[in-house]
Every structure is written in structure tokens, then in C-alpha cells.
Specification:
144 residues, five-stranded mixed β-sheet, 21% strand
Length: 144
């Protein structure tokens, strides 16, 4: 069964990839893109590239933080390299706002070389102010 929260988190993670200049190659729950293959024994949500650099994206949920093998999964995915050029593959971890501090503390347990290869991203929806708030200063003169 499709979890709507998981799909929403993946959509927010895709937006973060776009902000960092990556082009999505495959993604889970996508309409037009294929599903990413497993990396080792682990499922990934997004595979993307920026010029010659590749990245893997995983969105973490509450169930993931209850899994004792989470640190092994992060460590394994963060140490991946491309097949022929042996370039490091970045790992983007998308974490909901309420679990951001837990994820940050978890990453502190990794060795510094592995930690350099990980980008921790907050998955939060953007909120826009109401239309009236945007135009509230329109009637005031800045210069007279």
C-alpha cells in the first residue's frame, strides 16, 4: 500500500535535489521516471546526477529511526562509488523536521571521511503568507 506521507517526503526530497542543481534520473513513486534499483540490500528513493557527479537520496521516517540497522544503512550508502570512475556518490538524507536533531546525532557516530559525503536535509513544506500580507505595505509611500 502506498503511504502518502512517504510519497510527500520523496517529493520534498526531489525539490531539494533540484535546488542543489541535480537532475533526477530515477525516483520511487514517480510517474514518468523508473524506480531506482536497490543499492546492496537497501532501497533508495532517488538517484540523480549533476554534470559528472551522482547522488543517492533516501527519505527517513519514524520507522527508520526505530530500526537498529539504520546506521549500517547510512554508512553503506555513504561509501558508494561509481562503477567505472570510482568517484564518490553523495548521499542526501531527507529528514522530517521533528527528527532532524536525532539524525544529526546519529551522523556524529560515523567517521569524518564518511560524514563528508552526506548531506542532511530538512523536509518541510514551504509556507507562503496570505495574499493580503504581501500587499499590506503597498499603500505606504516610501519616498515623498
Amino acid at each position: 500500500m502506498l503511504n502518502p506521507m512517504k510519497r510527500k517526503n520523496i517529493d520534498l526530497l526531489v525539490e531539494q535535489f533540484w535546488k542543489h542543481g541535480y537532475m533526477t534520473i530515477s525516483r520511487r513513486f514517480g510517474t514518468y521516471l523508473p524506480e531506482p534499483e536497490k543499492v546492496g540490500d537497501f532501497d533508495v528513493d532517488i538517484v540523480a546526477r549533476h554534470k559528472e557527479d551522482y547522488a543517492i537520496g533516501v527519505s527517513l521516517s519514524e520507522e527508520d529511526f526505530n530500526n537498529p540497522k539504520l546506521l549500517d544503512k547510512i554508512n553503506f550508502l555513504a561509501t558508494r562509488q561509481t562503477k567505472f570512475t570510482n568517484k564518490k556518490v553523495f548521499l542526501f538524507l531527507g529528514v522530517p523536521e521533528e527528527y532532524y536533531q536525532n539524525a544529526k546525532a546519529l551522523l556524529e557516530l560515523l567517521i569524518p571521511e564518511t560524514r563528508k559525503n552526506i548531506r542532511l536535509l530538512r523536509l518541510a513544506e514551504r509556507t507562503f503568507p496570505a495574499g493580503r500580507d504581501l500587499n499590506s505595505n503597498m499603500g505606504k509611500n516610501l519616498f515623498s
